[in-house]
Amino acid sequence: MDSHQTKRKPNAREIAARIRDEIAAGTFGPGDRLPGGRAYAKKLGVSLMTVQGAYAQLREEGLVEGVAGSGTYVRDTAPGEQTPRESAQRLTDLQAEVARVSAELAGLVERIKQLEAAVGSTEGKPGA
Question: What's the rounded mean pLDDT across residues 9-34?
Answer without folding.
Answer: 93
